[in-house]
């Protein structure tokens, strides 16, 4: 039975995962190396619950118990009693491998481990733990409380008990699972990220402005968000990492990251989470930067 969940990384994804787990009645321990990020995550979750109450999706009486199910931690030993730990830290294989190495000595032998990676091989990440058979890809979408899908990805060693337990958890969270094979970027990002990268090339080559590209795709292809707006929402560092995984993993030049995307990441213009990307978010409404 999965009753206590550890979440590693309290950024936009980790805090969203913690929120939906707590709302579903599970106890959550949220861990991050950055203490400020932990405080920000808990404040954000509280605000999101208020928003859900205002919309009639949650009752006032449910809020405090749900919030009290979330604890925060800055040491990994706090994750020792978890039945499942979901890793949602920065999209870097090096960072994730180091986390798993440090995590596993703290875990119960029967604990399951999942990663929310957007693109990195589940089999390779599993190999950096002592339990590849209890390891799985659990790819939530952003924003987690709103998006219905969770992609499930088995590594080569993932056993059926692990897969079934995680599939049942997805249902308990009120989400829908889609099963993907362990190929670079799985299904959603294999299709979505090359489109976003192409939108950045379209900007880079001067085919259109930020506004023209987003308006064209919203009104011309009926996308709810333009691709550059979406890139800012995902985080340009995450977008670049996914393109690099596709480029290297599939060894095909069609996936080469656009130099303009590289430049934005090098400048620290990572999108919405830092206040600037293809749009500037410092004013009341986002302003295109090109
Ligand atoms: N942004 C998206 O749209 C999206 C969607 C699905 C999946 N993901 C994946 O989720 C993961 C997190 O993405 P995000 O958008 O939340 O990123 P983010 O930048 O908002 O948050 C990352 C968090 O990880 C923390 N962190 C970094 N190193 C750590 C360590 N060693 N130990 C503990 N915490 C550490 C950082 O302090 C930060 O709080 C990535 O693997 C990403 O690919 C992102």
UniProtKB/TrEMBL annotation:
Its EC number is 1.1.1.157. Residues 186-281 form the 3-hydroxyacyl-CoA dehydrogenase C-terminal domain. GO terms for molecular function: 3-hydroxybutyryl-CoA dehydrogenase activity; NAD+ binding. Keywords: NAD, Oxidoreductase. It comes from the Bacteria. GO terms for biological process: fatty acid metabolic process. NAD(+) binds at residues 9-14, 32, 91, 96, 118, 142, 273. The record marks 139 as: Important for catalytic activity. Residues 4-181 form the 3-hydroxyacyl-CoA dehydrogenase NAD binding domain. It holds the Pfam family 3HCDH_N. It is an enzyme of class 1 (oxidoreductase). SUPFAM superfamilies: 6-phosphogluconate dehydrogenase C-terminal domain-like, NAD(P)-binding Rossmann-fold domains. InterPro entries: 3-OHacyl-CoA_DH (IPR022694), 3-OHacyl-CoA_DH_CS (IPR006180), 3-OHacyl-CoA_DH_NAD-bd (IPR006176), 3HC_DH_C (IPR006108), 6-PGluconate_DH-like_C_sf (IPR008927), 6PGD_dom2 (IPR013328), NAD(P)-bd_dom_sf (IPR036291). Belongs to the 3-hydroxyacyl-CoA dehydrogenase family. This is 3-hydroxybutyryl-CoA dehydrogenase. It comes from Aerophototrophica crusticola. The lineage of its organism: Bacteria, Pseudomonadati, Pseudomonadota, Alphaproteobacteria, Rhodospirillales.
């Amino acid at each position: 039975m999965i009753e206590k969940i550890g979440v590693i990384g309290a950024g936009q994804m980790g805090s969203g995962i913690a929120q939906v787990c707590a709302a579903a009645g599970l106890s959550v321990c949220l861990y991050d190396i950055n203490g400020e990020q932990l405080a920000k995550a808990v404040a954000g979750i509280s605000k999101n619950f208020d928003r859900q109450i205002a919309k009639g999706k949650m009752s006032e009486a449910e809020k405090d118990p749900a919030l009290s199910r979330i604890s925060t931690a800055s040491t990994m030993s706090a994750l020792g009693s978890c039945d499942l730990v979901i890793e949602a830290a920065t999209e870097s294989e090096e960072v994730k491998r180091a986390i798993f190495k440090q995590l596993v000595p703290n875990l119960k032998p029967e604990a399951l481990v999942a990663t929310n990676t957007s693109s990195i091989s589940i089999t390779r990440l599993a190999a950096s733990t002592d339990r590849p058979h209890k390891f799985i890809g659990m790819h939530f979408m952003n924003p987690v409380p709103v998006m219905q899908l969770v992609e499930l990805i088995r590594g080569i060693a993932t056993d059926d008990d692990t897969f079934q337990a995680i599939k049942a958890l997805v249902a308990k969270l009120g989400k829908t699972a889609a099963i993907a094979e362990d190929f670079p970027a799985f299904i959603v990002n294999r299709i979505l990220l090359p489109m976003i990268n192409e939108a950045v090339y379209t900007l880079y080559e001067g085919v259109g402005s930020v506004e023209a590209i987003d308006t064209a795709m919203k009104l011309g292809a009926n996308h709810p968000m333009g691709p550059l707006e979406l890139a800012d929402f995902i985080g340009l560092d995450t977008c670049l990492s996914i393109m690099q995984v596709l480029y290297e993993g599939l060894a095909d030049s069609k996936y080469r990251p656009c130099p303009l995307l590289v430049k934005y990441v090098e400048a620290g213009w990572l999108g919405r989470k830092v206040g600037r990307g293809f749009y500037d978010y410092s004013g009341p409404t986002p302003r295109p930067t090109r």
